[in-house]
Each structure stands twice: as structure tokens, then as C-alpha cells.
What does this fold into?
Amino acid sequence: MSKVLMKGNEALAEAAMRAGCKCFFGYPITPQTEISAYLAKHMAKRGGVFLQAESEIAAINMTLGAAASGVRAMTSSSSPGISLKSEGISYIAASDLPCVIVNVERGGPGLGGIQPAQSDYNQAVKAPGHGDFHMLVFAPSSVQETVDMTYLAFDMADKYRMPAMILSDGLMGQMMEPVEFPDREVNPVEKPWACSGHKNKREHNIINSLYLKPDILEDSVRSRYKRYEQVENELPDAESYLCEDADIVVTGFGAAARIAETAVNNAREKGIRAGLFRPKTLYPFPKKELNEAVGNAKAILDVEMNMGQMIDDIKLYTECRLPVYFYGRTGGNIPSAEEILHEIEVCSMKGEKAECR
Amino acid sequence: MNYSFKKITILTGHYGVGKTNLAVNMAMYLRRTGTVSVVDADIVNPYFRTADFKRLFEDNDITSFCPMYAGTNLDTPVLDFDMENIIASGDRVIIDVGGDDAGAFALGRYRHIFQKYANNTDMLYVFNMYRREDFSPQEAAGILRDIEGACGMKCTALVNNSNLGAETDFDTVRSSFEFGRELEGLTGLDTAFTAVPEGSPQNEGFFEVKRMVELPWERSSR
It folds into this structure.
């Protein structure tokens, strides 16, 4: 297959169709609009359903319905729209339904702005809705990885019967890069639980999230958490770059990590032993990989396009053994490689002396 | 390059073909021999647009016009240029139009002005064959017709801007010549020029372009 030049959003939409997504429900919001626009143009031609819902809330509940029928379904939005979807996400998790939810993050809180941000880390990883549950969260840092993770998100959502999120941002979604679509077959998973018509050949299936007896509800949550254990063993993924001998390990995900990589290279040229640790899955978080990456480090510099959200997980999973510094831009501003290099230089001077902040 | 730019150059095309990168390169090129105005008439895309180059234009004494709210958080599809005066300035004018027919539609409001300068205006249809795997010359011709229909003006020539972003080399461009010839046949238009990366062979049909629309990690910290 040959390379093409695509926007992150278009490539994600194309990958979703190739991964066997049959139903898409959306509602317009910048900067995710190209996902909807692309699918509106192409979905019907390829035997799928595109539907612009009357609201984000309607779109997520349509996604729930389509997933319940056993087809691969997706919805996408940007930050404020994801907040509206949170009730539906909780219902989907409670119903053990697989689906893909895309968040092309923009500046917040509130209506915020339309420029890129990563301020929805906590929302995606800690509390995408009410109740005890998790959602798979993938954080791409290139258009190619957006494509690869879209396939993976559908596969893993089906495998573990849980919602999966692609946590993109305005920069990932809007930028253009050469991309190649993998040549692969879609292998439909058996879904004996799906409400797809029993044809009088089996008991009818029920998709439900309401439990009137506490013991039964507790059992259902506990069995879900058993599955999360499996997820946490099998799925964590991360990239470690120049970490083996690094004094300073920069941590970051998505677009911020990509910029940090340039800064790490520039730091190396200046003789500072810097490395980069980039989680690709935010839930499950690659805890073991993080600890390996900072094995020889004297300090960690966490870089995000927010006020510091993943930093809490970095401290938690390294048990605050090392000082963890933070540099972030927010509100739609993007940190420059120059700014990050400056922070690396400052950290390399402070080294071990500082307290864990 | 054989092609000589007219007083007014309107750049149209599918979004993401590289109109902005081309507009910035053209402005720098034309500035060597005269005064230049660049108009960012993109109502479609709030990201990666000529308005981002305000600083470069200022440093090079290139006049730039952008919609009132470009680069802010207000995503309003409004064009409020005094096009008559921009053209009357005597500068050569480059107009970077937003993608597809949706972007071209807004340009139609200035049609009566461009008609007055018809002999000295080129509306260039910019294409990039790498925009999609199954992108065909037929589809490219269809987009061209949609754009013409939306703005009520006719394209006068093609520009081959086939590229793969930062990975573009001359072979990337060379592989698009066949696509370009087919598109010429389908539209009856000539190719004004082909955009090629720095270091490509010299040819009278080539216009050398630099990669100006960069991503944050391409901007080194040195």
C-alpha cells in the first residue's frame, strides 16, 4: 500500500471504516468536524450508516444502541461534547458494550476555545462518567499512530467488551502527515450477547445497566474489575526514547510528547542526558514501563498541554522516588521545543536536590 | 519558470492540498520583484492558515489581510475585505481561498470585482494526488467543477502541488505527472506550474517551494 497525505481526523475516519465500523453517530464541533464530514461523505457508499444526531447526548446513546446490536460503532466529539456524553459512556460501560469514542481535545474548561489542549486526561482516565468503571484510552502522537490505534481500539473494545477512547487533540486532528493504511482483514468477533434477533432459536438477550439488588450489582461490578485486571496485565503500551542512561526523563503523551522529543534531541546535543517516556495507553497506564524508563534517572520533567494532570499518575506509579517537575501550556497554546529545552536545562541543574512537588 | 504571475492570483482546491504553503512561497517569490498583498480568504479551516504567517509577512514588507477573527477562538465564516481597495493598491495580490466548494462559495461575493480584472487574473486550481489512496483525476476534476459552480468563476489553469508533507522529494512529484496529464485532459486546462521541493532538477515548468507550514516539533529549539 502506498502513502497518502491526510489530516489526522480524516485518517481516523478512514481507519474506522476499514476496521469495520458500520455505524457512526456524531454532532458537529471544532476541531473534530472532519471526522463527521469524511464519514458523511463515505460511510453510505461503503455499506455503513452515518447519522448526524440532534445532540451529543443522542449520539452517544445511538452508539450504545448500535453496539448492543453487535456492530462496530463509533462517535466523536471535542472536549465540551465529551462532557455531554459522559452519562452515555457510563451506561455503555455498565452494559459491557464495545464501542469507540473519539475526543479531539480543545481548550477548556467550559466552552473554552477551539485550539488544541490535553486538559481531558483526568476525565478520560479517571472519571469518564459516574460509577465504578474504566474505559480504554489510547493517545496517538502522529497521524500514522492515530490510524493504527483506531484499528486497535475497535479490536480491544470487542475483546474486553468495554468502551475505548482515542484521545486525540486539535493538533493531531488538524495536522497533515503521510500515512499508510495497513492491509488487513477485519475479523469479526463472535458476539453471542448481542441483541441482533433471536429468531426463536435462543433465549432473548438483554442489555441492561439497572440492578435493583445491591448484591447482584456488586457482583457485576466485581466481575468487570476482574476483566480490568486482565486489561492491566495485557494491554499497557509505551515508548521509551533514550531513557537507558538518561538523567532527566521527560514524560508526556500525544502531541506534547512529540514536541518533547525534539527538545530531548536538542538537549542531547547540548550534552544533557535526557530521555522521553511516552505512554501510548493512558488506561491501562504502562506502570512497569515507566519504572523501567526512569530506572537511572535523577529527575522527571512532565510536559503536558494542561495544568498538570498525568503528573499525578507519574508520581503515584514511581511512588514519588524522584523529583517530578512540570511544564505545561494550556488554553489552546502549544509548548515549543525551545520552552521544553529550557525546562530540561533548569531541571538538570536542580537534579536530585529538589523535593517532589 | 515559464509561467508569469498575473496581477491577481486566486488559489483554490480541495482542502489540505497545500494552498497556504504555496501562497506563502508565492508571496516571498513575488516580493523580490515588487510589492505583494496576501489575502487569507479561508472560512473553512481555523487551523494552519496564512494568517499564521503575519510575522513573516511583516518582516518582508508583505501586506496581509485576514478575516477579523482568524487565529482566535471565534470560528466565524465571515469575509469582510475591501477587495476593491486591496486590488487598487497596485500590489500583486494572492488570494488563498478555503477548501472545496464550501470555501469557494464565499469568494463569489467579490466576483464582480475580479471580472473587471479578468485579463489580469488567474484562478489556479491546486491539486495534490496524494490526498487519498483512491483519489482519481476524475474526482479532482469534479471538485474543480464544484468550486467553479460555488463561486461563479472559472479556473484558468492547474497547479500540480502533489506532495507528502515533510517526506516530499522530487520522486514524489515525478510520480504525479501522469495524474496531472489526465487532469489536464479532463478539464481542458494547462498546468501553470508544478511545485517541487528545493534541490529538484531545473525545469521551465517547475516552481521551487519551501516547507513553510511546519509542525511544532519540526521547529528545532536552536
